[in-house]
Amino acid sequence: MTGWGRPEFTASAGTRVHAAVLGPADAPDLVCVHGWGCSHRYFGPLARRLSGRFRVVAVDLPGFGSTLGPAEPLDVRGLSTALGDWMRATGRGGAALVGNSAGCQVIADLAVHSPELLGPVVLSGPSVDRRARSYPRQFGRILVDMRWERVGLTRLLVRDYLRCGPRRLRATARFLLADPVERKLGHIRTPAVVVRGSRDTIVPRAWTRECTALLPQGYSAEIPGAGHILNYSAPAELARITCSLLDRTGSEDR
Amino acid sequence: MEPSPAGYFDGMRIKDRVVVVTGASSGIGRAAALALAGHDCALVLTARREGALQQVAEECTARGGQAIVVPADVTDADAVQQVARQALDRFGRIDVWINAAAVTVFGPFQDTPLQDFRRVVDVNLMGYVHGCRAALAVLREQGRGVLINVSSIVGVIAQPYTPAYGTTKFAIRALSTSLRQELWLDGARGVKVCTVLPATIDTPLFQQAANYTGREVRAMPPVYTPERVAHTIVSLVRRPRREVVVGPMGRSLVLQSKFTPGFVEKLMAFQVHRRHLSRKHPAPAGSGNLHEPAAGTGSARGGWHGGRRTALRRTATAAMLLGAAVASASRRQR
């Protein structure tokens, strides 16, 4: 029904971390990191397209989706530490990472304190645009962006938001808006691609250009006609861009 | 943006399409790229001249589209594959692939160097074959897309002194048809293959052609604008059709050739002899842009006044119709 395989539960980061898994057991791992208030669920369409080549693992960060979090909502460092903990516990250090929106902030923060855990990185719609770090601007942009998303996303997001709860949502949003991600991107030393949808209102082109320039081994891609949530609304395109990034790095490493 | 499941489709919205154009540095390819850029398309431009492509890319961006430049010689199959790969790397999909790279050689059959003949076949035919191979692999995987091959009305009625060009243009029609049939048999209803048959178009093709006739090559009237072909290409993306002729004179010639093939063949021969090759201006023998690309940054138009000539033709037709109407009205009054 959900389209995912057997879920995975790992004791790490002081909680029981849930991760949805799809793909053959012997394939290389690909870890998906969700954005603000979301969960593994909106990675479904992307996972289905990548599951032939990879073992797609979409983790729920503490407090989101099916992973219980601490009473006090975690800040960006807290989330990235939890992600690092979980990656070490499951032996996924060096796996490829796909982040969407705020997930990119978590990955950038992980690169600051545990760069050895990072494999090639796909930053899809990296938030938060330096020039629009305020609640009204971000919410306005999110509302406008919904026009470019596939039908069904709204329902999925609303369910995830309700599960997360308003208190955690608000606190997390505050941490994300205060996060100086532009000072952390330089720490992602592995090959990385910054992807945005050409109609994305949350992440303008000037911002992704800036992000790409900050990455030591970064290049950019843009999916014409797509919005912010590429893993749900343009999964085939994002899957191809992900594969080509991994093809490039594969030829260099092996 | 999800490609529809391999179901039937009737063309697509032109906005936000990812389009690859070969031969984008000049002529029809360039005009098509610019027209599509005006519809917010993302373009992947390829040709031999990087400088010319950069200029086209800038013009595309100015019109509101996006463009990346991937220089390649279409005779190199790997280079063409690379173009497709770059398109996927940058934009994640390919919606439309336009094959428009062409060269030509003028000269009596026996006097045309064999290597020039072979080069024309390599570019015009094998270039399209490489394009189709690269494009269809992606389009079939997506289950959706349009492949547009630019042939010519010379692909229906051949001309004297350009056997190489005519041969390839006939072959392109066969290639398109074959691919269409294969797709149909495989049930890949979402992938469309179209052939465009333009009449004489105001492009730099004629100046840049290899020439062994000893006579200057002119654009044979009536001359139409490359923008007109671009318009047809845009309409094909919206609503794919098998074969489309551009230019009313071309359309009537194609139609007539079905009823009186012998006559049209001779008419075409006579026209080429009288009006395609200059009777006043001699020209030195040369291989044109066959082996080395032309200098400069290219252009869509070739300086044959396609716009002015179209306007003149339209005015003349309007005047004729008006005259006929006045004449018939005054006769009735009497």
UniProtKB/TrEMBL annotation, chain A:
UniProt domain AB hydrolase-1: residue ranges: 30-240
Domain of life according to the entry: Bacteria
A GO molecular-function annotation: catalytic activity
The protein's name: Pimeloyl-ACP methyl ester carboxylesterase
Species of provenance: Halopolyspora algeriensis
Automatic annotation (TrEMBL), chain B:
Stored SMART domains: PKS_KR (SM00822)
Annotated region (Disordered), positions in chain: 278-308
The Ketoreductase domain, residue ranges: 17-187
Single GO molecular function: oxidoreductase activity
InterPro entries: KR_dom, NAD(P)-bd_dom_sf, Sc_DH/Rdtase_CS, SDR_fam
RNA-binding keyword on record: no
Recorded family membership: Belongs to the short-chain dehydrogenases/reductases (SDR) family.
Protein name from the UniProt record: Short-subunit dehydrogenase
Keyword annotations from UniProtKB, A to Z: Oxidoreductase
Record's GO cellular component terms: membrane
Superkingdom as given in the UniProt entry: Bacteria
Organismal lineage: Bacteria, Bacillati, Actinomycetota, Actinomycetes, Actinomycetes incertae sedis
